[in-house]
Design goal:
By secondary structure, the chain is mainly α. Helices cover 58% and strands 0% of the residues. It has one domain. The longest helix has 23 residues. It is globular, with a radius of gyration of 27 Å. The termini are far apart.
C-alpha cells in the first residue's frame, strides 16, 4: 500500500515478481493498474461445439426427410415416424390446418426441399451461416404453425423452438475448422 501512496515519488520502484515463478512482471504505468492479459483463444474453443451443433442440426433434418420419403422403412416399422409421403401429408395437414387445404401440399414440398437443402449444406459446412439462418427461420415457422394448430405444448415438447434458437446461434458463430467454408476461406487467403 505504501507504493500506491508514494507513486508520485521520484525514486524508482522495485521490480515486482510473479509469486509462483518469481519471474519479473512487466513494469506498469501505475502500480494499481493490473497488467493486461494476453488474448484468450475464445473462438478456437468454439470449433468443436460449432461442429457438433452443425452436425446435430444437419442429421436431424436429413433424418426427417429420409423418413417422409420412405428411405428409413415402411410406416409402422420401429424408428419410423411416417414411412411415406402420404402419412407425412396427414401430419402436415394437421400442422397447417389454418391454411386452405390446396396450399398444404405446396408448403409441405417447400419445407421438405428446405430441410434437405439445409441438412446437406450444414452437413458439409458450406454456406453455414446462411443455411443455419434459413434453418432457424424454417424451424421457427414450424414451431409457430404447430403452436397455432396444436397448442404451444407441441412445439415446446418437441423442442422445435430449441432447434430454431440453435440454428440462429450457429448462424452467428464463425466457420469451424472442419467445414468447407473454412477450407474455402483458408484457400482464398493463401492466394
Amino acid at each position: 500500500m505504501d507504493r500506491i501512496k508514494n507513486s508520485g515519488a521520484s525514486s524508482p520502484q522495485p521490480a515486482l515478481a510473479h509469486p509462483a515463478t518469481a519471474a519479473p512482471l512487466p513494469a506498469l504505468a501505475h502500480p494499481a493498474t493490473p497488467a493486461p492479459l494476453p488474448p484468450l483463444p475464445a473462438l478456437s474453443r468454439l470449433a468443436t461445439p460449432s461442429l457438433l451443433l452443425r452436425l446435430a442440426l444437419a442429421l436431424g433434418y436429413l433424418w426427417e426427410v429420409a423418413d417422409r420419403l420412405g428411405i428409413l422403412g415402411a410406416h409402422g416399422r420401429p424408428h419410423v415416424g411416417w414411412g411415406d409421403w402420404s402419412h407425412f401429408m396427414e401430419y402436415a395437414t394437421q400442422v397447417m390446418s389454418f391454411l386452405p387445404p390446396t396450399l398444404v401440399p405446396l408448403f409441405a414440398i417447400l419445407a421438405t426441399i428446405g430441410e434437405a437443402a439445409f441438412g446437406l449444406l450444414l452437413l458439409a459446412g458450406l454456406f453455414t451461416s446462411r443455411a443455419a439462418f434459413g434453418s432457424g427461420l424454417l424451424s421457427l415457422l414450424f414451431a409457430l404453425a404447430m403452436a397455432v394448430s396444436m397448442g404451444i405444448e407441441s412445439p415446446v415438447g418437441y423442442s422445435v423452438f430449441t432447434v430454431s434458437a440453435a440454428s440462429f446461434l450457429l448462424a452467428a458463430l464463425p466457420a469451424d475448422k472442419w467445414s468447407l467454408d473454412r477450407l474455402i476461406k483458408d484457400h482464398l487467403i493463401k492466394k
